Amino acid sequence: MTATTRTDRLQPTDETLDPPDWDEVRAQGHRMLDDMIDYVADIRDRPVWQPMSQATRRRFRSELPRAPTDLAEVYRDFTDLVVPHATGNVHPGFMGWVHGGGTVVGMLAEMLAAGLNANLGGRDHAPIEIERQIVDWTRQLFGFPQGASGIFVTGTSMANLMAVLVARRAALGATVRREGLGEAGRRLRAYTSKAAHGCIAKAMDIAGLGSDALGCIAVDHAHRIDVAELRSAIARDRASGLHPFIVVASAGTVDVGAIDDLAGVAELCRTEGLWFHVDGAFGALAMLSPELAPRLVGIECADSIALDFHKWGQVPYDAGFLLVRDGVRHREAFASPAAYLRRETRGLAAGTDWPCDFGPDLSRGFRALKTWFTLRTFGTDRLGAAIARACALARHLEARVLAEPELQLLAPVNLNIVCFRFRADDADAINGEIVADVQESGIAAPSTTMLDGRLAIRAAIVNHRTQLRDVDRLVAAVLTFGRQRVAGLTPLIEIEAPSLAP
Ligand SMILES: *Cc1c(COP(=O)(O)O)cnc(C)c1O
């Protein structure tokens, strides 16, 4: 490029990235919207998931696109290459990991949020008020006092990390934010159960405390933290000069959906002066169901709760959330003054506190909008009923497993998660194959976990679309593939998903 052309490009022109023809983009947009509504409406006609061919995968490798491509052509690649190979969690047969199903309402709200393109780091505008309203609704749901604070984040992994950071600041005072952990920081000790999610150990690592500073306490027969063992571990650590500062209890463990004795842990934390955090990634929203809420008793005493609206709340990804009882403590862990973020008494820079005072992010999207639409459109009673229904389906699956001599239940069913397996010699290998067979068949998508050293087929029922027939199809598929695998046969699986816009 010569110096002249470089200068030419710096001349102001009227060119923008807006479409030259608004009617054309409107027609294309309506088509996309219709297609995606059809996609959700007809989701049962599709396989839950299908693997990508090498040829498809290669279509995602190309040079940086310096020249423009027609919107219609890019959209065609989306319909042909992306849609048939999506995760599958919109489908009622998806029961792997813990994935929410999303709703059309949430999808539409995402579109509106993208149109407004609001930045929720701070400033004085209505989108911030929407997020504040959800903070207040969540505060009410968990019986937290006025003065509690909350913030949307990516997911519970981030919310748990932030809770550790808030508790760390509360334990060590302001110096930890200026000087780092120092000698005092190296003595901090945290506790959770052996059944807790791996992101707790990762949070300790990222917070600079080290995952070795996390005591993983034994669980009882129902996979709940052993509170007596927790009490002794705290006493032992104090006796050797360490500084216990936080206990992370689980409201719904990832493996089997166990709920720790939250009231027991709350009481222990109160007498020991420890921060009581609850990882309620999916289970905390069971508060929305009057039948299930009593199982969470004690959660109202937590110092902080991490949860995901994108799991049992059915809000589209991502919509994690952290609620903190004492908003001052929360703010002290993250607020940092900066001249360019000055608060005013009038104008767009008015209002305080800003969300950027409560977490590591400055620029933040409008996750609150899809959550606001979801909570208001369905009402929390209906969302709670969907949660209760998932638990009823899990009990149906449990009964089916207990009634089939070829199947074995591997853990008590607490909420919505059923762990079982096909009986076989070399059961770990066979059940691993069965799960892959079921996934590749497009019939259902369970996942696996290890329980007491045994590989389990794990079905977590989260999607509001899942029904009895989906659970029965999973059982039938496991039996079919299990019998074939035990007989040494490799199931023949051929499926093809319809394109989105044929
Ligand atoms: C899903 C889950 C997490 C992690 O949440 P993300 O939203 O995936 O970051 C943590 N704990 C439990 C119990 C979970 O189920």
TrEMBL record:
Q: Which UniProt keywords apply?
A: Decarboxylase, Lyase, Pyridoxal phosphate
The protein's required cofactor(s) are namely:
pyridoxal 5'-phosphate
Q: Which residues form a coiled coil?
A: none
Pfam families, per the entry: Pyridoxal_deC
Q: Which organism is it from?
A: Bradyrhizobium ontarionense
Which protein, by its recorded name, is this? Pyridoxal-dependent decarboxylase
Enumerate the Gene3D superfamilies for this protein: Aspartate Aminotransferase, domain 1, dopa decarboxylase, N-terminal domain, Type I PLP-dependent aspartate aminotransferase-like (Major domain)
Which InterPro entries does the entry link to? Aromatic_deC, PyrdxlP-dep_de-COase, PyrdxlP-dep_Trfase, PyrdxlP-dep_Trfase_major, PyrdxlP-dep_Trfase_small, Pyridoxal-P_BS
| Signal peptide annotation | none
Does the record carry Lyase as a key word?
yes
Q: Where is the composition biased (Basic and acidic residues)?
A: 1-12
Residue numbers spanned by region Disordered:
1-20
Which family is this sequence assigned to? Belongs to the group II decarboxylase family.
